[in-house]
What we know:
Blueprint: H1 5-15, E1 21-28, E2 31-40, E3 45-46, E4 49-50, E5 53-56, E6 75-76, H2 81-94, E7 100-107, H3 108-115, E8 122-132, H4 133-138, H5 149-162, E9 165-169, H6 173-193, H7 203-216, E10 222-229, E11 232-242, E12 245-253, H8 262-276, E13 281-283, H9 290-295, E14 298-308, H10 312-333
Parallel strand pairs: 5-7, 12-13
Antiparallel strand pairs: 1-2, 2-5, 2-6, 3-4, 7-14, 8-13, 8-14, 9-10, 10-11, 11-12
Helix pairs in contact: 1-7
Amino acid sequence: MTTHPAWVQSWIDNYGDEVPFRFLVGEADGQVRGIALLTAGIEQKYGPFPVKTLHVGTAGEALQGTIKVEYNRLLVEPEYSQAFLDGLVNTIKNDTSWEVFHLDGFADNDLKPWEASFPNAAIRYRDSLYFDFEEAREKNSDVISQLGKSTRSNIRRRIKKLGNLETDWATNLTQGAEIFEELVDLHQQRWNATGEPGAFANPKFLNFQRQLIVQLIAEEKLVLFRVRDDSKTVGCLMLLVDQNRMLDYLSGFESFEEYPSIGLITHYLCMEEALKRGFSAYDFLVGEKQHKNNLSTHCNQLCWLTFNRPSLKTKTVKTYRKMKRFLQGTSVTQ
């Protein structure tokens, strides 16, 4: 999804005015074989120091308003992947403008070809939990039967107590836009109630999503799903579709005090419908939330690689971190 033309175009339209970017194009036999987006990060830091960063793909935005790219990858024909990667790495290493190089949100298998080119890079691994629909079909099973006993009990109890739940799966732009605006309202209400601005307070982030909906919903590359309780919207989801996998991207829910476990219930109902519609998996992406553990059956790993060019800034931060670990270890020993 992160290399889909609509995703990249929406990112450029909304972030390209503040994040410098360029494309590297690989050609063979007079034809384009691979394209990579390179971006220069803004407001990036290494420790306490501001640094100049270089990123591959739609990344490098300021933290407030970032789209948090996950399942990032190169867009290249398979038979040209190594040659394109070699050329891309050579270009990156010869670019003297950056101090820190980042690969953001790559799947572990997609990251492996990069590792030899950036030895001693720091790599952060994060779990991306998912439910395997294909496995459920092989077992001729529904979703709930594949979940843990306590989760099954909780879902059945909550649905029985709510009673009159209705669901909508957007099939056109008008319905999708309506669900999205409800999602935004619910999301903002919950975050504002805790004193936080909420993701959609950033107009670039909000417009990025609206543009995606217009371009992707007709291609069935984006799903907007809604749960109502007696005509009151209590949960909304926006999911991306990447190689027939559903990616849990954005959500908005009513107050958990008024509707306990409504996030769990909304995802569960969407999953049962997605199973019927032939999707292969339901991926919750990174982030530690209880409903992800409750509703998942498998796990992928996404990776964030950071490679620092030797400089006074990076040496200072590394020395400080080593000293901090040493002092913490000494304290524990004592």
